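Bench log, entry 3. Co-assembly request; chain sequences pasted below exactly as received.
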Amino acid sequence: MSCVPLEKQVTYRGSFTKDFPLGEKSWFRCGGSADLLFEPEDIEDLSIFLKEYPKDEPLMVLGGMANCIIRDGGIRGCVIRLGKPFAEIEIHGNKIMAGAGALNGSVAAAAAKAGIGGLEFLSGIPGTVGGALAMNAGAYGREVKDILSAGMALDAYGGFVPLDLEDMDMSYRKCGAAASGDLVFVSAIFEGVEEDKTLVRERLKEIKAKRQDTQPISEKTGGSTFANPTDEELEAAGLEKGTRAWQLVEKVGGRGLKIGGAQMSEKHCNFMINTGDASASDLEDLGDELIRRVREECGVELHWEIKRLGERG
Ligand SMILES: Cc1cc2nc3c(=O)[nH]c(=O)nc-3n(C[C@H](O)[C@H](O)[C@H](O)COP(=O)(O)OP(=O)(O)OC[C@H]3O[C@@H](n4cnc5c(N)ncnc54)[C@H](O)[C@@H]3O)c2cc1C
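Structure output for the full assembly:
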């Protein structure tokens, strides 16, 4: 393995695992390994690691892997995952401070318990706060940028970078601050509104029921495969504004379409699933086939919302 980031005299308290089977742990349950996985013990450990890590070696950070395909050839260099030490959630008035390793569902539940409304949409979005920041995750008309007060990241040299909403530069399923891949989000402050706990809990229940009815949430999936096209893209193709990605997938015969062990869900045709023995290549080939069909038959370019990471096998 070419990647040896550790300065001999530096001691890390977190754990390192060589050839970590990352794909098996992703929501799709397929794909390759990471050369090296680092799980820091705390923020100081992470900061030292970033400072020491050779700048010419590949490095990436992942959260719950609910939004990615880990390609079959695996990921070169080191992958950082922020686990339990980064999962703290604190409530201060209507503000919720959450570590980047906290699950979105736990943040929504903590807000509900404290009688804070406005964060319910997070309950149905698998993954961590770090991933939600990087993706500006959203559902039911709300997205992270609507509830975010501030974020904190470490840069490639381990320095602290406080970020306000403007610095985050968030738009539909995008975060400008994350685009370079040089920042590791370590925490966020979200803000909601004081509300009756029972009402907030009711909304959580409604979201859960809605998800169960409309999405294949018990399957091996990665959420929406493609981002919805913009109105400008739709207009240019002579299509009605507001047309959703799933409608285009449906139009080109995508519902239930299969390549190898990968299939577009019958329940929600913008969700791709691993039916059991899919390789990461099957998943990617299926997505690429749909992009081709939609381009040729509808004149619109669909864009992957799912991140495809690493090397093809
Ligand atoms: C059943 C299902 C339903 C879903 N529904 C929705 C939905 O309604 N709305 C929605 O928006 N998404 C949805 N998703 C997708 C996914 O849940 C979100 O994108 C989520 O935010 C991903 O978080 P994660 O921790 O799993 O990120 P990962 O998949 O691990 O990573 C995603 C990206 O975030 C970056 N990242 C992760 N952590 C950090 C960090 N600490 N610092 C910097 N960058 C980081 C990674 O490098 C990567 O580029 C769904 C997924 C599933 C499986």
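The pocket of flavin-adenine dinucleotide is lined by residues 27, 60-68, 82, 100, 124-128, 130-132, 134-135, 137-139, 178, 183-185, 215, 217, 221-223, 307 (CB under 6 Å). The chain is about 30% helix and 25% strand.
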